[in-house]
Structures are given as C-alpha cells and as structure tokens.
Specification:
single chain, Arc Repressor Mutant, subunit A, Rossmann fold, 4-stranded antiparallel β-sheet, alpha/beta, 38% helix, 2 domains, 5-stranded parallel β-sheet
Length: 244
Amino acid sequence: MPTITMLIIEDEPDIAELMRFHLHREGFAVRSVHSGRVALNEIERNPPDLILLDLMLPDLDGLEVCRRLKRVPQTADIPIVMVTAKGEEADIVTGIELGADDYITKPFSPRVLVTRVKNVLRRRGDKGQAVQPQQPDSPASITLAGGTLQIDPGRHVVSAYGSAVELTLTEFGILHYLAKHPGFVRTRDQIIAAVHGRETVLSSRTIDVHVTALRRKLGDLGELIQTVRGVGYRIKESAGELEE
C-alpha cells in the first residue's frame, strides 16, 4: 500500500516540527512549508493526500488557501484539517463551509492531532476519495417542511425549495440522521456515532460547528434543526413549529 503523504502549512517552525514528528512516527510521509503562497505552488507540483493548514499565515491566510484549493478540480478532493490558535467559531465555521474536513486548536496534544488526522482519512478513504457512510435502512427519500426540504440518501442529494444544497459529507450525515427521526432529540455523542462510527474520537463542539454551517447553507429552513440545550439536537417536521 502506498505511503500516505501529508503537507503541513505552518509558519511556526517548532509547531511544524512537532506535528511532523508525531505524524511521521505513525508511518505517514510528511513535508512542511511556511507560507500560503509557497504551499499552493508545492501542492500544484506534488499534491499530498492530506493537508494540515494553519489559518494564521504571514502572506496568504489559511482560509484563502482553502478557498483556492477547493475551487480547483485537481485539488478540491484533498482533505484539509485546519489548525488555528484563535479557536473562534466564525473562522472555524467559515473553513468548514469552504470544504475543510475538521479542525484542531492550538495548543493541542499529539494524540488529538493523530486521532483527528486518522479520522479524516478513514472518512475520506484511501487517497482522499470520499466514502459515504453505509445507511442500509435509509428510506429512498425524506421530505420535510411541506416538501420544501428533500433529502435523497441514495443519490446523496439535498434540495431546498427545489434547488440543490452543497453539503459536506459530515453535514449531510447529520441532517440525514436527524431527519430519519423528526421530533426526537439526539445527543451529540449519538450524532457522532451515527455519522462517523462509535470508535471515532471527536469533541462535541465539532458537531456544533457542523450544525452551524448546515443551518447557514439551508437558509431559513435551517431553523428546522432545533437545539435542545444541554442535550443535543432534533429536527422539526415543519419550519412553523413553535420552539420550546
């Protein structure tokens, strides 16, 4: 099996070396660059299987790097794990909306770094190809809000008011899982297990970030996804239902 290659885009040498050391120890082939512009040139010449992308870069910030990579077919499928010291939800949500697969915040433990990277690779499959979670008991389609929101798990398509909505794999999984049982509350841990598997290690905040991005993409139909404080989320059958 070919060695999985990774590119670290990080301008702090100590952090880049720490990441490189622990990922190399896990058997990955790792190289690093210090700026966004250098990274884009390097990726064009030699695309990696996964990118670890710092958001705070000296020339071209990480969000712009992510944006440019995702709009080019040759690099759009490369999984990206964002690395940020800010930990601000707005930046994380923006990155995920642009197509990033996950994020970690500085400071982070080596175990968290390795686990997040392996989870992304497992979800995306070998060499960054998307792998859809198996849902053998899924109905052919699910319709909510009087037909204005339609979910087709067979084709992995979501439409709102008749227009297709572009969702990431995780966003689709969350929406589909909640929509299969409208009105029933699901905890964050239940959502993680249903979308990524019970062995996946993710923080509950990761689900919150994905739900925020999902709501934005759905527009006013995003209010169908209801937060149950202290518990998790549930989906309402219609946008007109009263909040508790």
